[in-house]
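Subject: for your reference before the review

Hello V.,

The reviewers asked for a structural picture of the protein, and I figured it would be easier to keep everything in one thread rather than splitting it across files. Below is the amino acid sequence we used in the manuscript, unchanged from the supplementary table.
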Amino acid sequence: MRLPARAVSLLGCIGLAIAAIAFAQAPQGSAAAPAKPKKPVFVQDFTGSYEPAQSSSGRSGPLARIRGARASEKASQSASQLSSDIVKEFAAQGFVAKRLDPGAPLPTDGWLVRGTFYATDSGGNIIPTELLGGEQKPNTQLSVSVSNLAKDPNAPFIVFGKAEALKGQGAPVGWNPYVVAAKFVINTVESATDLDKLAKEIVQTIMQNKQIVEEKALASNPQ
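And here is what came back from the structure prediction:
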């Protein structure tokens, strides 16, 4: 039995369509390149310099020194907690992240995240301060930097906040990081919840500028 010419033509079209679908679903020789793995992230405890406030009479004694020591200890604990919270936030974004113990040797590859607490006086000059350090200075701010450990850990390629706050941290002459206009202001830190919120804000800001960070990281070490 011979099929009509129109039926033969229709069957031929169906056969071509099936072949095209099979070809599209078959593995191709030039598969897309796998995504480049993310750089590991290492976080150091954020720093500042604690300066205990003098009494109203302008004198300091043993009691003031004890209070200062307690404030410094509390500030150190808070800095450690903030670093740990930042590590957790980076891990939630799919990064391999680790907090570096104070004095621990730096790894040779990856991103190094650091931060500096500071305040400004009436003339706009930067005054180093410490998170939860005694009588917290008003308008305490935080500058966060990211550097390439494979290139130079002391020369951040990108800074969130004010680059001036990080001067004197060992950066070489000619240091010129890309500054992102992101301002972190700490009016008060009374609990671990406040530190967790601050950590989220820091990591979210970095992720929002992730493309800029990656481009600057690549430019700092093109290999």
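For the response letter, the relevant points are probably these. Residues 41-52+61-220 form a domain with the Double Stranded RNA Binding Domain fold (CATH 3.30.160). Confidence is low (pLDDT under 50) at residues 16-24, 50-59.

Happy to draft the paragraph if you're swamped.

O.
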